[in-house]
Specification:
InterPro entries: GTP-CH-I_C/QueF (IPR043133), GTP-CH-I_N (IPR043134), GTP_CycHdrlase_I (IPR001474), GTP_CycHdrlase_I_CS (IPR018234), GTP_CycHdrlase_I_dom (IPR020602). The protein is α+β, with helices and mostly antiparallel strands. It has helices at 4-17, 30-41, 102-111, 117-132, 146-149, 168-171, 173-184; strands spanning 65-76, 82-92, 114-115, 136-145, 160-167. It folds into two domains: 4-41, Orthogonal Bundle (GTP Cyclohydrolase I, Chain A, domain 1); 65-184, GTP cyclohydrolase I, C-terminal domain/NADPH-dependent 7-cyano-7-deazaguanine reductase, N-terminal domain (GTP Cyclohydrolase I, domain 2, 2-Layer Sandwich), CATH 3.30.1130.10. Helix content is 39%, strand content 23%. α1 crosses α2 (30-41).
Length: 187
Amino acid sequence: MVNREKIKKGVRLIIEGIGEDPERDGIKDTPERIARMYEEIFKGLEPPEEELLKCIEGETHDEMVLLKNIPFYSVCEHHFLPFFGYAHIAYIPDGRIVGLSELPRAVDYLAKRPQIQERLTKELANLIMEKLRPKGCMVVIEAEHLCMSMRGIKKPGAKTITSAVRGIFRRSQKTRQEALELINKDK
């Protein structure tokens, strides 16, 4: 659970630490604003409000399902700066399917915590395998990291691409290639 008071105290210390006046008109409410923002962007640290990847009862399918260009925002745990981009998810059901909004909901939940992109990719693939028990899944995430764009190496626009493949997507190059072609179509 987010502790607003601790965040406000910490932000005030940062404001003082950079040499600003924490009582200046434009800044005096910043600790409260940041505390509310952290409560929102780190919502994934709390248990989900609803079950993730709830299957549709009575519906089945056994061919590829692909949802691409799912926008997400997360915070890098190393510098507490945002990284953002798109997740692409493909799975081949073994009968069980979910409503399409369930996949972006899972992306949002897992992204709303201090993260690294590699872990986010794996967590999403593992969640799909656990909850849907499909023949396989593939998750591809492409993101820009502000810790690389605005500081350090300063390379805005550079994209990091990670993937996690499970089941048939790992065993079958043809299946993996089909998903990648669909992801890259119309880019």
